[in-house]
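Q: Here's a chain of 428 amino acids. Please give me its 3D structure as tokens.
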Amino acid sequence: MPAVVLIGAQWGDEGKGKATDLLGSRVDYVVKFNGGNNAGHTVVVGDEKYALHLLPSGILSPGVVPVIANGVVVDIEVLFNELDALSARGVDVSRLLVSANAHVITHYHRTIDRVTERFLGKRQIGTTGRGIGPTYADKINRVGIRVQDIFDEGILRQKVEGALEQKNHLLLKIYNRRAISTEEIVDDLLSYADRLRPMVSDTSLELNRALEAGRTVLFEGGQATMLDVDHGTYPFVTSSNATSGGAATGSGVAPNRIDRVIAVVKAYTTRVGAGPFPTELHDESGEWLRGRGFEFGTTTGRPRRTGWYDAPIARYSARINGVTDFVLTKLDVLTGLERIPVAVAYDVDGRRVDEVPVSQSDFHHAKPIYEEFEGWSEDISGAREFGDLPKAAQDYVLALEEMSGSRFSAIGVGPDRDAIVVRHDLLD
């Protein structure tokens, strides 16, 4: 049975829940391997809509073991708030496993995130202010707090003291904020210990044993390819590896155990926060896409920037992730357009560039070269076979598939959970 990585192919908010739903009861484990509560998944179950921020979507599937792996940064208060909210709605959350090696977001991480972003002024990156970046920075600087530290008060106190020794100087002397005491951080984290302890395990060992036993493991990435700290539009990125390679380092499962990489791509493009976006629309077409697609952040509520489909980005994503299957979402949003532009390449200082430029400056100044496709007016939300789609919609999908570097195995045609056209089995 396979290990499957599911990632976003653009700047996030592609609708990964559609792909997760397709795998359904065939999945035994769903693993979050990167990020924290800085991104959200909206999952619809029957008439119920759930907005998840830190928890993997598998928490909503009976019989599935949801896992928060070592590559995630965990805000424990947010974790318990989400669990309590789901429990109040009758969801069984008792199967959740949390890696002992996952790093913990503290109060001082959130404080530093917010004051640093304000200090940057017009150079702001557009973070969510939830302490994600500072927590990853502490991890790399080897002054981070891990989940396992909460169960040893002596080690926890030493680590918090070491971290605050530098941070309080920063808060006091640079940002004119009050110092944070070791006691308030230690007391806060210790207050979660008893409830957290039963969830914590060696998740790497658990996942490897599951694969050896023939279980199906889905690795669910937070954020998306173009926000990856190494391969995205740096510095306007997240602080972790949101590409398929991050599934191995973020979970403790070896790369050669991964069988399939599924990338979710929207039928147009959106992003939240600052940074380059070649196909971004600043006109009524952009507003139309935002309204029709309800493009507002699940976690932040921020309006998303909108633009046309960008084929070079899809090819880039296919290449660096090793994509075996694309899932195309929100095709229905384009219904009613007479013509649909698609960026097939870029103009960079008068030169045609067919791939995403490696130079940040070139990408910032890239202007899309568009090819237009015929639109359709028919309601496609009831389509369940590819042949049910209008000819123009079929042509659009096939053109995107040819440009994007891998097969389009499924197509989302509406907001309902079952509004999807399946062309190829994602596990075949």
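Q: Can you summarize the key feature?
A: The first helix runs from residue 16 to 23.
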